[in-house]
Amino acid sequence: MNYALIRYLFADFLLFLLLFGSIDSVQNLEISKVNQAPARRSLLSFPDNHDTALVAALDGTINLVYRDSGRIIWSFASGSPIYSSYQASTSHDDDKESAPVPEGSYYVDCGDDWKLYAHTDLGKVSMDMTMEEFIRIMPHVSEDGGVILGSKKTTAFVVDANTGRLIRVHHSSSTNEHSNFIFQKTTMKNEKSTMVNEKPDKQFSFTRTDYLLTSFAANSDKVLWNVTVADIDVALLCQEPPNKIIRPSLPLPNNLRSKSSVDFDFDFDFNMPLSCQSKAVVHRLRTSHKLGSYKIHGKQAEKKVPILLLPQNKPLLPNSNNNLDTQNPEIPSQQDVKKVNFLSEGRMAFVVIFILIIAIGGLMYRHHTIMAAMLKQKPSSSSRRKRHRKQGRIYANEDGNVDSERNPVLNFNHLIECDTEGRSIGKLFVSNKEIAKGSNGTVVLEGVYEGRKVAVKRLVRAHHDVAFKEIQNLIASDQHPNIVRWYGVEYDHDFVYLSLERCACSLYDLIQMKKGGLELDSINRDIIMHDVHLWKPNGYPSPILLKLMRDIVSGLVHLHELGIIHRDLKPHNVLIVKEKSICGKLSDMGISRRLVGDMLSLGLHATGSGSSGWQAPEQLLHGRQTRAIDLFSLGCVLFFCMTCGRHPFGDHLERDVNVVKNRVNLFLVRHIPEAFDLFSRLLNPNPELRPRAVDVLHHPLFWDSEVRMSFLRDTSDRVELEDRECDSVLLRELESKGSVALGGKWDEKMEPEFINNIGRYRRYKYNGVRDLLRVIRNKLNHYRELPKEIQELLGGVPEGFNDYFGSRFPKLLMEVYNVMYHYCKDEEWFYKYLEH
């Protein structure tokens, strides 16, 4: 007989008797007080500071409802239903829902728990992945020729949190598929009449992501099955009204709390369902009949219909797909709610506790048996350490996510190897390995957040306002591919920990490393060194470097469209990520500020000064700060990229003085006219004369060979219409640039055989810009008709053409562009060159 097992079970039985007596006595006490005690909270709810909830109905309507009654406060339509599925019939007998799946076939559907399941002839199998993860590996082509396609579309709604009024809608696609509901009047269920506030102090920012999977039969357009699912998350963004201070969402020490801090005042009788500057997942109703408790009209509006409370919203939690299942509980029917009482809850808790005790006893016995066996083997201490490390190791895939197939059970305390020191803080594991340092005690560490490798930005708790600003602006902007993603925040008594997208290095590190002035660790070197060439032998930027520079501009365009001024743009705050190709992302928005409403500047008393050497003159002189300060910093950053780490205003110690005195030196880029032109505009001391970020994105510096040649050809067609005898202003201005654009007679810079070829068809003026443009246009259009030796001379189209004419007339494109931009930018043919 196994006396150890009997001993553990006997201990369990004693503990069971104690708990049974405690529960029974508590129940008797509650029964005796039931007639005089106030109503207790049902187990169907749990403590929450918010008396409202956001619920998405199956038809796509988003509702703000009272939690206790289910009565709708306001609602609006977000589009198509949030879930639908279709499976084609495989035979005439398969009309029933329970029809079996034919052998060898399958279909994918979303279950009641919002997880993906594969339905096969063997039954229903969980796929252990989210819809987004499944779409990421699409398209899929099977051996028999069948195809599965996946798509993803995101729509953002900005809504007045008080009234539900739609303020604006943004789409990820160019087609405005939801235009039918953008201007739809919001349905108000609140009995009070309210005035529309043009500048609401609180706004909901809803992000709806629609996923679609479609399976096509082999060699056919027939759809075998499809499924659509929509995820909806929300952030509550609070503005800063004049003479008021927003109470931070992060808990503050008592000595930092201000008596003057006040909450917003409302003319409504409901609270917000989440805290300011926090994210949450909107609860989704899986089937249409469950919306019945909300569809209350007329006299029935006062009827109290209990509903299951949503999970309590924690401030500043990330929007993670991994949390969808736990944040979407099903709402029970009214009949089920009536059946629940305190006694049944106590008995259920008693049964659960009893089962847990038995399970714990079994585990203790198993642990006792294993330990006894290990003691018999007496392994050495070194082998125990090796085995312990091996068991504690977590494997990650190429994207940095934990591989669930090789890690069946995820324990966040052991996501990093056991010999790596660190600690867990909520959902975050922070290692002691330092990546970078910032100002005011800020340190960047390695970490893991919900199974994902992250960079942990640790800020001193006293600087909570910096973290608050950064989180607030990241919530609004981090969906863009050129903005560093933010995943979540945790905090302890001393620090705030921001979990950010893990990147390989900064732009500063990359430039310094490529010129040989910095050594990175072997892992980062392997990530970014392979086949990365930033400059051509002639000093021009490589396509990879031009893409990185364009990424920076693209990220800045996105921020400025949202009204966010970065205010600290520098190479250290541009991070490099190796995805399919190298990608640049803007980061570190701790001192960024958002322009509210029609504001064009932050005023004369804006706090935060940026970084020395990268500030605009108006920052250094404490003037008005507009979006233009970012454009000045952008000019310095792009110059830094193209010149292998040099600065247009000199060495570190003299930069700020030179910026104020406008002592700029662009000599290193004079051989690249497009760069010289752009940097001269960006570094203009007058902020009103600097270009907008979107104009920089479309500047000829970022054009490829095809766009360059297309522009010169279209310009030739445009100026060919001008009549010399009528003294055309456009033509006169174009020809006045000849001395700079051509550098003399253009026939002297070309081979005799090429000049002989063009002379067979037309007579040209060798000192005219229009005539040279006509040569380029004719040879492009009739390339196949050219003799083979002329084709070899010019090279291929368009790269060869661009190199041939660009090397002989490097200033031609920029001089022609400036003239045509001035005179023709409003003409239809020119529009496409303002959108590249």
Automatic annotation (TrEMBL):
CDD domains: RNase_Ire1
GO cellular component: endoplasmic reticulum; endoplasmic reticulum membrane
GO-annotated molecular function: ATP binding; hydrolase activity; protein serine/threonine kinase activity; RNA endonuclease activity; unfolded protein binding
Subcellular location field: Endoplasmic reticulum membrane
Record keywords, A-Z: ATP-binding, Disulfide bond, Endoplasmic reticulum, Glycoprotein, Hydrolase, Immunity, Kinase, Membrane, mRNA processing, mRNA splicing, Multifunctional enzyme, Nucleotide-binding, Serine/threonine-protein kinase, Signal, Transcription, Transcription regulation, Transferase, Transmembrane, Transmembrane helix, Unfolded protein response
Catalytic reaction(s) noted: L-threonyl-[protein] + ATP = O-phospho-L-threonyl-[protein] + ADP + H(+); L-seryl-[protein] + ATP = O-phospho-L-seryl-[protein] + ADP + H(+)
EC number per UniProt: 2.7.11.1
Matching PROSITE patterns: KEN, PROTEIN_KINASE_DOM, PROTEIN_KINASE_ST
GO BP, one annotated term: mRNA processing
A family per Pfam: Pkinase
Stretch forming the signal peptide: 1-25
Enzyme class, spelled out: transferase
Domain KEN: 705-836
Boundaries of every Protein kinase domain copy: 429-702
InterPro entries from the UniProt entry: IRE1/2-like, KEN_dom, KEN_sf, Kinase-like_dom_sf, Prot_kinase_dom, Quinoprotein_ADH-like_sf, Ser/Thr_kinase_AS, WD40/YVTN_repeat-like_dom_sf
Name used for this protein in its record: non-specific serine/threonine protein kinase
Species in which this protein is naturally found: Lactuca sativa
